[in-house]
Design a protein that fits this description.
The complex is a heterodimer of chains A (about 110) and B (about 150).
Chain A lengths: L1 E7 L2 E10 L3 H15 L4 E12 L1 H16 L3 E5 L3 H9 L8 E2 L2 H9 L2
Parallel strand pairs in A: 2-3, 3-4, 4-5
Antiparallel strand pairs in A: 1-2
Chain B lengths: L2 E8 L5 H15 L3 H22 L7 E8 L3 E7 L27 H8 L2 E6 L5 E8 L12
Antiparallel strand pairs in B: 1-2, 2-3, 3-5, 4-5
Helix pairs in contact in B: 1-2, 2-3
The chains are: A alpha/beta (about 110), B alpha+beta (about 150).
Chain lengths: ~110, ~150
């Protein structure tokens, strides 16, 4: 899993590339989110466009990121969720937690609109 | 297309990608329903992840075996590890319960149970745990329509 970070209007976009399936990915994510909070960057959009697939361990990584950001007073939202990832969100009811967007503009605007 | 496609590989996560590719090819030849294809692929990845992580404890000298058994109207997938087995019943907890929804682990079996028509666990003497997943390749009449 490769993570690249960029910023639009103060909102951090994390572009993920590869498969999100646990192992070293978990530590990479944990470090990434804690560093963001240390820098006061609390509003994060995770872009899943480059994610081929995800398993339940990978879903746990996203939940961990979500709870880390929420506890730090921020939020984490998902962008470009594929049908396959949507199926997992739906069956585990995580679709009720994660706000998902199909366009980057909408995801960024969702933070700016409050 | 009837027949069996089988793979055997060391317990390393990098092989999940090969499993996913083979699964995609097998299912594509049997089924043109995207939701069913996705549910099979997701469940197969969960079963193999469990076999690597919990069954073989990530020991790369222990193999995972997977067989895609293609039938006329359904696909059966068997995933076998070399482990001692585990109490899978405790993982059938009600994950969508709001009290559990933030848990980081323990969703794999729940996902398989909900996405496949049949999920069975069996200890194979002298080998390990065998998980057998089965799913019809056509949508059920009057099946639930997803409202996302």
């Amino acid at each position: 899993m490769r993570i690249e970070s960029r910023e639009i209007n103060g909102i951090v976009i994390l572009d993920l590339q590869g498969k999100l399936m646990g192992g070293p990915d978990a530590e990479t994510f944990k470090t990434t989110f804690h560093k963001l909070l240390e820098k006061g960057q609390k509003r994060v959009v995770v872009n899943l466009h480059g994610v081929d697939w995800i398993n339940s361990t990978g879903m746990g990584i996203l939940i961990s990121g979500y709870t880390t950001m929420r506890r730090g007073g921020g939020d984490l939202r998902l962008l470009h969720v594929s049908d396959r990832i949507q199926s997992i969100l739906y069956v585990t009811k995580l679709n009720l937690i994660f706000k998902c967007f199909d366009s980057e503009d909408e995801a960024v605007a969702s933070f700016l609109d409050g | 297309m009837a027949g069996t496609v089988a793979l055997e590989f060391p317990s390393e996560y990098k092989f999940l990608n090969i499993v996913d590719l083979v699964c995609g090819e097998v299912v594509q030849n049997l089924c043109d329903n995207r939701e069913i294809s996705n549910e099979i692929a997701i469940s197969v990845i969960e079963a193999v992840t469990n076999a690597i992580e919990h069954g073989n404890c990530e020991c790369s000298d222990q193999n995972v075996r997977i067989a895609f058994i293609c039938k006329e109207d359904r696909l059966c997938v068997e995933v076998e590890d070399c482990g001692k087995g585990f109490d899978y019943q405790c993982y059938l907890q009600n994950i969508p319960d709001p009290a559990n929804v933030y848990h980081l682990r323990g969703r794999g079996i729940f996902i398989m149970k909900n996405m496949m028509d049949s999920l069975k666990f069996e200890m194979v003497p002298g080998h390990g745990m065998k998980v057998r997943l089965e799913k019809a390749l056509k949508p059920k009449a009057g099946g639930e329509v997803r409202k996302d």
